[in-house]
Amino acid sequence: MGKELEFRTIGKEEIADFIRQLDEMAEAMANPETKYKFQVKLKEVEFDVDREKADALGVTLPVGSIDEAERLLQEGVITPKTFVEQDETVHEIIEFQPEPVGYSGFDNCVVHSLAQTDRGLFELGRYPAMDLETQTKPWQWFIRRKIRQPKDQWGMTSGLERYTIQPEDVLTDREYQVWQRAQAGELPCPQCLDIPLSAKIIFDEDEEGQIEGLLLYCSKCGFREY
Ligand SMILES: [Zn+2]
Q1: Does pLDDT of 117 surpass 80?
Q2: Ligand 1 mean position to 33 CA, how many Å?
Q3: Greater confidence, 84 or 214?
Q4: How far does residue 213's CA lie from ligand 1's centre (Å)?
Q5: DSSP letters for 103-129
Q6: Do both 17 and 107 map to the same domain?
Q7: In total, how many domains does the chain have?
Q8: Per-residue model confidence as pLDDT tens digits over 119-162
């Protein structure tokens, strides 16, 4: 049936490459300016509880299963108030949309929705993760930078519907400075020296909405730089 397994020998260079990639990723994850390009695990999520809704639904907290917790989240009985990352970075949540904007993972186990925090707009994933030590399933949450226009996704919900993502939301501080200078026409083309470079924010096409970086280009001589 179907596919044959492929075996091949991995050379030393490939292994070195792979290790280099891991190092680069670890470095990017350790940098507050670049880490949100990756999934950043949340260590803690603090919730506000709507007691009236809970009473009306006859719910007693805490609930016994992740499915039940997910239901309460979507019903607005519990609403995340604060995210704490593994490195202790804290987010105050400004707006949270519980409705899924997508699913991923094995058996679509990861629910994705959106959260606006004081550090930007994020895609928020959550799933029952297996803890090998305790053999239990904690509710694991992670965030990742989100830059797609939230208009369609936020639908009827309040303030964010009118929120337009700003370049400073999606670029690192350094990229934003470069972008600002380019907008002001302060970056002459290093190749033809004739006109200032234009700047454009580039998106990754495979992973919708994921930021790729900042492109600087010259519309005269074709110079480009990422
Ligand atoms: Zn040029």
Answers
A1: yes
A2: 29
A3: 84
A4: 20
A5: EESGGG-EEEEEEEETTEEEEEEEEE-
A6: yes
A7: 2
A8: 888 889 999 888 778 888 889 999 988 654 444 444 333 344 44
What is the domain range of residue 211? 170-225
Is the domain of 26 the same as that of 101?
yes
Is 53 part of any domain? yes
How far, in Å, is the centroid of ligand 1 from the Cα of 3? 50
Residues with CB under 5 A from ligand 1 (ion): 189, 191-192, 218, 220-221, 223
7 assigned to some structural domain: no
Of the three residues 163, 190, 212, the one that is the final residue of a domain is 163
pLDDT of 159 reads: 41
- The whole-angstrom separation of Cα 182 and Cα 187 is 5
pTM confidence score: 0.59
Examine residue 135 and state whether it is found in any structural domain, yes or no.
yes
Mean pLDDT of the chain: 80
